[in-house]
C-alpha cells in the first residue's frame, strides 16, 4: 500500500500539450489555462465516505475531455464544513480510495490532506501539490454542489490562481460559474449518476445493498470494517 503521495511516482506519460480546455462536450463556459507544455494533473478532492462511482466517472470523464496525464484523489483530513456529522476515520476513507482507484494507471491517491492534520482547506492542498509538482498545471475537479459553495471556502480568491477549476454536472444540482472569476472555471457535462456517499451510508445502515454504486472492493472493505452499520 502506498505510504506517500502516489502521484509523485505513478503517472502516465504526457499525451500531448495541446490544451482543449473547453472540450466539445463541455457546457462551454470558461476557457481554461493556455497550453503551457506542462504535465496536466487533475485533482479530485473529497471526503470519500465512501468513494462511489459518481466520483470515479467524474474524474475519468474530465481526464479524457481535458487530456489530463493523471488524476490524484485527495481524501480530506478533517472536512470542516461537514463538522455537523460524524465522518469515518481518515485511514478508512484513504484505504477505500486506494482500493477504488488501484486498477486505473491514470489514478493515484495522496495523503497530503490527511497527514497535514487540522481542518482541510483546498488552498493548502493546492499549495502543497504545486510544491510537489512544479512541472504541472493543476485542474481541480468539483461537483456542481461543491462549486456552488466555493466562495465560502478559505482564501477562495487565491484558489483560482493555484489551479484551473472544473465544475461537473451532478443530478439534483445546478452547475453554474456565476460569481466566479472569468476564465478560472470550466463547466463540464459528465454522465449522470445519482449516487451520493450519504445515500450509500444510509443504505448500508438499513442493510440495503451498495453493489454497483461503489466499486466491489469498497463493498468488501465496508463489510470487513463494519462501517456505517450503526448510523
Ligand atoms: N454523483 C456525483 N456526480 C458528480 N460529482 C460528484 C458526485 N458525487 C460527488 N461528487 C463530487 O465529488 C466531490 C467529493 O464529494 P464527496 O466526497 O463529498 O461525496 P458526496 O457524495 O457529495 O458525499 P456526502 O453525501 O457525504 O456529502 C465533490 O466535489 C462532489 O460535488
Ligand atoms: O477550502 C475549504 O475551505 C473547503 C471547504 C469545503 C470543501 N472543500 C473541499 O472540497 C472538496 C469536496 O469536499 P466535500 O466536503 O464535499 O467532500 C474537498 O477537496 C474539500 O477539501 C474545501
TrEMBL record:
Q: What class of enzyme is it?
A: transferase
Q: Which GO terms describe its molecular function?
A: nucleotidyltransferase activity
Tell me yes or no: is NADP among this UniProt entry's keywords.
no
The pathway that the record names for this protein is: Cofactor biosynthesis; NAD(+) biosynthesis; deamido-NAD(+) from nicotinate D-ribonucleotide: step 1/1
What SUPFAM superfamilies does the entry give? Nucleotidylyl transferase
Concerning Pfam families, the annotation shows: CTP_transf_like (PF01467)
Keywords on record: ATP-binding, NAD, Nucleotide-binding, Nucleotidyltransferase, Pyridine nucleotide biosynthesis, Transferase
* Enzyme Commission designation: 2.7.7.18
Q: Which Gene3D superfamilies match?
A: HUPs (3.40.50.620)
The annotated region (Disordered) lies at: 1-45
Q: Which reaction does it catalyse?
A: nicotinate beta-D-ribonucleotide + ATP + H(+) = deamido-NAD(+) + diphosphate
Question: Domain of life here?
Answer: Bacteria
Cytidyltransferase-like domain span? 43-203
Regions of compositional bias (Low complexity) in chain numbering: 25-35
The keyword Transferase is assigned to this record: yes
Family in the record? Belongs to the NadD family.
Any idea what job this protein has? Answer: Catalyzes the reversible adenylation of nicotinate mononucleotide (NaMN) to nicotinic acid adenine dinucleotide (NaAD).
Which NCBIfam families would you find in this protein's record?
A: cyt_tran_rel, nicotinate (nicotinamide) nucleotide adenylyltransferase, PRK00071.1-3
Put simply, this protein is called Probable nicotinate-nucleotide adenylyltransferase
Origin species: Streptomyces thinghirensis
Encoding gene, per UniProt annotation: nadD
Amino acid at each position: 500500500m502506498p505510504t506517500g503521495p502516489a502521484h509523485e511516482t505513478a503517472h502516465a506519460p504526457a499525451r500531448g500539450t495541446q490544451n482543449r480546455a473547453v472540450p466539445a462536450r463541455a457546457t462551454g463556459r470558461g476557457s481554461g489555462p493556455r497550453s503551457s507544455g506542462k504535465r496536466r494533473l487533475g485533482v479530485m478532492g473529497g471526503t470519500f465516505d465512501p468513494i462511489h462511482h459518481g466520483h470515479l466517472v467524474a474524474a475519468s470523464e474530465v481526464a479524457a475531455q481535458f487530456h489530463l496525464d493523471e488524476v490524484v484523489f485527495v481524501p480530506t483530513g478533517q472536512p470542516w464544513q461537514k463538522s455537523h456529522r460524524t465522518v469515518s476515520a481518515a485511514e478508512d476513507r484513504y484505504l477505500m480510495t486506494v482500493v477504488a482507484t488501484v486498477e486505473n494507471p491514470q489514478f493515484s491517491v495522496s495523503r497530503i490532506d490527511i497527514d497535514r492534520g487540522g481542518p482541510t482547506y483546498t488552498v493548502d492542498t493546492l499549495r502543497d501539490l504545486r510544491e510537489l509538482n512544479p512541472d504541472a498545471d493543476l485542474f481541480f475537479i468539483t461537483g456542481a454542489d461543491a462549486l456552488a459553495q466555493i466562495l465560502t471556502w478559505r482564501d477562495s480568491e487565491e484558489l483560482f490562481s493555484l489551479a484551473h477549476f472544473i465544475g461537473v454536472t451532478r443530478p439534483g444540482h445546478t452547475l453554474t460559474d456565476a460569481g466566479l472569476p472569468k476564465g478560472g472555471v470550466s463547466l463540464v457535462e459528465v454522465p449522470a449518476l445519482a449516487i451520493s456517499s450519504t445515500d450509500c451510508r444510509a443504505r448500508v445502515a438499513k442493510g440495503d445493498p451498495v453493489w454497483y454504486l461503489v466499486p466491489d472492493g469498497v463493498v468488501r472493505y465496508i463489510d470487513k470494517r463494519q462501517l456505517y452499520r450503526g448510523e
